[in-house]
Amino acid sequence: MQKTICFKDNGIGMTEEEVEKYITQIAFSGAADFIEKYKDKANSDQIIGHFGLGFYSAFMVADRVEIETLSYKKDAKPVHWSCDDGTDYSMTEGSKSSHGTEITLHLNNDCLKYANEWEMRSIIEKYCSFMPVEIYLEKLPKDSQEILASEKLPEDLVLEEIPEKLEKDEKGEEKKTEARLKIEKRPVLLNEIHPLWGESPSTVTKEQYLDFYRKTFHDYKEPLFWIHLNMDYPYHLKGILYFPKINSEYESIEGTIKLYNNQVFIADNIKEVIPEYLLLLKGVIDCPDLPLNVSRSQLQNDGFVKKISDYITKKVAEKLSGLCKTDRENYEKYWDDISPFIKYGILRDEKFAEKMKDYILFKDLEDKYLTLPELKEKKDGSETVSENTGDKSSEESQQKEKQASDENTNESGTVEQSGDGEKQEEKVQRVYYVSDALAQSQYIRIFKEHKKEAVYLTERIDSAFITELEAKNEGLRFQRIDADFQEAMQEKLSEEEQKNLQSLSEKLEKSFQKNLAKDKLKIKLERLLSNTPAALLSISEESRRMQEMMKMYAISGMPMGELPLEESLVLNEKHPLVDYLLKHEALLETEEGKLLEEQIYDLARIQNASLNGEEMKQFVDRSEKLLLQFVEEKKA
Questions:
Q1: Which has fewest Cβ within 10 Å: 16, 268, 366, 445?
Q2: What are the Polar residues biased-composition ranges (predicted)?
């Protein structure tokens, strides 16, 4: 098995004095000083940037290292340098006849894998794919390859000549083939010395960008678009960032940002240099000015590194906002794929959030896209509400607000503060949203029928995202379409009508609590805009958000216990079924009344979520029983 690796170049070479100075003295005295200085600090980051130690590290894989070198200088003599185990060395006259240097590593038994052609190829392709000097890989003993005689290069070593011969083509006609040559296999070029990121963006074609993406990231799904970074002052930075199609499960996205220094690979996804949210993308960044001889903790606090991060953030935000302003159609087309990235960036980066705040899109129930400013201009979602700061129940507060809203509303549309100071009134822009189009389809239908506005926010990140938007936009409130549903869909009532509904609600609540054995169930009788449905479950927005927060704590390993949802059964006074219950109070005390109330409750639940096994069985049995009663009545 091959036990050596030889590195050759055709550079300027070294004289004996230069070998003594740059190899012997630096490699040994420099290493000794280094080991003495850092012997108590086992941090590999501190090795970076110490000249001479790169050569000394050869002994991590080799028992012996040899150098053959010849300087380009006139009358220079070749030099041979040899060292065993990194301690004793010898230097004699060498045998090299052309200028340049050859370094041969005699591998130790634990590191023979590095002599494997494919292992070496993978290392070079990872770290030196774009090194500015051509790198060729050659395996010994050399294999052979066949070429056309016309393709021969001056340096090719011919092993065999294959003469012309007659062959029949597909039509059966005889044709003379070109003479061929069997030659020693040529060394394979492994790197691209002129990477695409170094080119002027105006000269690069779409196909070149796509080809570079496929080769670099081995991803054959076409990216949505890309940003070509090109900065020469006050520091040098070049690169290309690609926006792949991003699924909504943003936590599972595996982006890759490759960091280079003068076209030499440093590492993937260095969070201290690249903003964290950008790690959802794929790209390359080359920054020759990046300090390499400091630890990652120092990078995090380095002012220069912070400027690099801010510049990248600025260019990404400019690209996205520019796309929204100048090519809105494509921006909308891309939105579903890039929105998790943008939302995550807004949550993680203040500067990015500030630049992108007016370019967030929301898809409404008609599948039209609106920016946040456009959404806030919609008058339909604007309403006046109160924030209760006293100890009174929210239900009492809402009832008082309904009774007093007409008298206390001033010309600007805000509600005046009460004299006792218990309530603080404000004008709120309420935005209803859909989190699950299937589960909330009934609510969507009703909203559409009455031309009410709502938007889709169905991604996992949206819960945290809307909380952030509310914190940054005074008076903006997001409310799920099934939360406190009756607020958006109830008719305006007189004070007398409100009192009457409240009284009827209390009677129905007692009946439902008894028949369903749910003493905590809240019943709200409302006169809705639509005659259907008969009943819907309404969830308190505050309670729902608190439960979501508890679930997130549980996912992160911080169990907080269960928080029951504050559900209310909203009964539609206009529906014939509810009207029947109201007109036949005596029925509520019978078995038929119990059956009817159970069915109404389960029908409302099904519109929000599926029933469990036993609940579904009871629902099916009850449905059959009601149908049989209907059939028996028809027979009679």
A1: 366
A2: 406-417
**Tokens at residue 259, please?**
């960091």
Alpha-carbon span 440 to 442, nearest angstrom: 6
DSSP class of 607: T
Spatial separation of the C-alpha atoms in residues 86 and 517, rounded to whole Å:
84
* Rounded CA separation 478/345 (Å): 20
State yes or no: 413 annotated in a binding site: no
Tens of pLDDT, residues 458-498: 998 999 999 999 999 998 999 999 888 777 888 888 899 99
Cα dist. 263→122, 160, 207, 305 in Å? Answer: 17, 40, 22, 18
579 annotated as ligand-binding: no
- The domains found in the chain, sorted by start residue, are 4-115 (3.30.565.10), 144-186 (no CATH), 207-359 (3.30.230.80), 361-390+424-481 (3.40.50.11260), 492-636 (1.20.120.790)
pLDDT value of residue 29? 57
Q: Where are the alpha helices (DSSP H) in 296-425?
A: 296-300, 303-326, 328-348, 350-356, 372-376, 394-408
β-pairing verdict for 361-364 and 369-371: antiparallel
Whether the CA torsion 396, 407, 380, 412 is positive or negative: it is: negative
Which secondary structure element, helix H or strand E, spans residue 617, and what is its range? helix 613-635
Look at residues 595, 544, 538, 541 and name the one whose alpha carbon lies nearest to residue 571. Answer: 538
State how far the Cα of 355 lies from the Cα of 310, in Å rounded to an integer.
12
246 in Cβ contact with 340 (< 8 Å): yes
* C-alpha to C-alpha distance for 561 and 547, rounded to whole angstroms: 10
Three-class DSSP labels, 265-328: EEEECCCCCCCHHHHHCEEEEECCCCCCCCCHHHHHCCHHHHHHHHHHHHHHHHHHHHHHHHCH
Which tokens in the block code for residue 246? 């991003």
Express each pLDDT in 97-117 by its tens digit.
999 999 999 999 999 999 998
Residue 62 identity (one-letter amino acid): A
Q: Is 622 annotated as a binding residue?
A: no
> Is the preceding peptide bond at 195 cis, omega within 30 degrees of 0?
no
- C-beta atoms surrounding 535 within 10 Å: 22
**14 marked as part of a ligand binding site:** yes
Q: Is 543 annotated as a binding residue?
A: no
Q: Is 29 annotated as a binding residue?
A: yes
Average pLDDT of each block of 10 consecutive residues along the chain (636 residues)? 87 92 69 53 45 72 94 95 83 95 94 92 91 90 87 89 83 83 90 94 96 92 93 88 73 74 88 83 90 60 79 93 96 93 93 95 96 80 45 43 41 44 66 92 90 93 94 92 82 90 93 92 90 86 78 59 70 93 90 93 87 92 91 84
Q: From start to end of 518-636, where are the E strands?
A: 522-526, 535-539, 567-572
Enumerate residues 6+ apart whose C-beta is below 8 A from 27.
Answer: 52, 53, 55, 56
